[in-house]
Amino acid sequence: MKSSIPIFYTRSELLTGIEKCSRSKKIHIGFVPTMGALHEGHLSLVRTAFNESDIVVVSIFVNPTQFNSDQDLEKYPRQMEKDLEYLETLNQNDILVFAPTVAEMYPEGTATLPNYNLGKLDSVMEGAYRPGHFQGVATIVHRLLELVQPRKAFFGEKDYQQLAVIKHMSKSLRLPVEIVGLPTIRESDGLAMSSRNALLLPEYRKAAPRMYEALNHIANNFSLHRAEELMQEAISIIETPDNLLKLEYLEIADAEKLQKPISENQKIRVFIAVWANNVRLIDNIPLN
Ligand code: AMP
Q1: What is the DSSP letter of 28?
Q2: What is the pLDDT of residue 24?
Q3: From ligand 1's centre to the CA of 25, what distance in Å?
Q4: Which end of the chain is more exposed for a tag (fewer CB within 10 A), N or C?
């Protein structure tokens, strides 16, 4: 089945497409940036975007500058036809898909990037384990926001640190856009939906919900003075004799600056990154 959703491959095509939709009226554009291999988590962002905008631009672009290894970039799932069919199930007319090439987004090449001030947000957790990752994220999101000029852009709390980084960048550059964060959508066994889940071999897929179990163990019993003890108990949920899951980090941090919390009056979250064989999974939930 051929999709009827318009798909644009260049920046100028996309601008013409948006112009056609707006017919010179002032319209509110909602924007959902993705790397494709769409699942219900992405669709929930698009649905909310439609509730709050006249038209919605969904970008599908596997951004090379946010990957730390060529192998990870290569094996990242790509399925454009399926993605378009999936978006079609929303039955929305005013949806525009932007699927640029790497050269379109990086005409100068990807070897050197601009340097964004991301506060200290990119020095902890994902930032510490994936050097340069958030500079790549900031670069592509900034370029896409400048192109699409949305009133609101929608991001998932599944990648909470990314959401914090983008809010920080948008504020510091005074971009005229509202950055909206939306809750994580999960499989019925609790595993956070992710395009990478498709890469999990069955035994690892079966073990992966232990991440959510470990996070919930901390959340259900949380008080700041018990944090260390609860973390140890959570680690023993992840690292069992079957050796299927290898913990990269488990951290409790305040929800704004992502630093060690000092008081329960702060909003606090717990964050986890795990290797399931050669697939890296992340998750986080609020603690208060
Ligand atoms: P990605 O395609 O993985 O780069 O994700 C694109 C957007 O979808 C990001 O804002 C993610 O945070 C969001 N997202 C990914 N997985 C989920 C999920 N399970 N629930 C909600 N949002 C998600």
Answers
A1: P
A2: 63
A3: 31
A4: N
Residue 282 φ/ψ region, left for φ over 0, alpha for ψ in the -120 to 50 degree band, beta for the rest: beta
pLDDT at 50 (0 to 100)? 97
Question: Is 197 close to ligand 1, i.e. is its CB under 6 Å away?
Answer: no
> Of 75, 101, 81, which Cα lies nearest the Cα of 195?
75
Report the distance separating Cα 273 and Cα 256, nearest Å: 19
What are the structure tokens assigned to 63, written together?
Answer: 């951004």
Q: Is the CB of 41 under 6 A from ligand 1?
A: yes
Which of 210, 209, 227 has the alpha carbon at shortest distance from 287? 227
Name the residue among 186, 181, 201 with its Cα closest to residue 267: 181
**11-22 vs 133-148: helix axis angle to the nearest 10?**
40
Active site residues: 42
Question: What sign does the CA torsion over 15, 16, 21, 22 have?
Answer: positive
3-state secondary structure of 279: strand
Question: Which protein residue's CA is at the shortest distance from atom 19 of ligand 1?
Answer: 193
Buried-exposed string 253-270: b where 16+ CB fall within 10 A, e elsewhere: bebeebeebeeeebebbb
Q: Which residues of the chain have pLDDT under 50?
A: none
**Cα Rg of the chain, angstroms:** 19
**pLDDT for position 23:** 74
Task: Identify the three-state secondary structure at position 36.
Answer: coil
Evaluate whether 18 touches 55 at the Cβ level (below 8 Å).
yes
CB atoms near residue 61 (< 10 Å): 19
Identify the residue whose C-alpha is closest to ligand 1 atom 17.
41
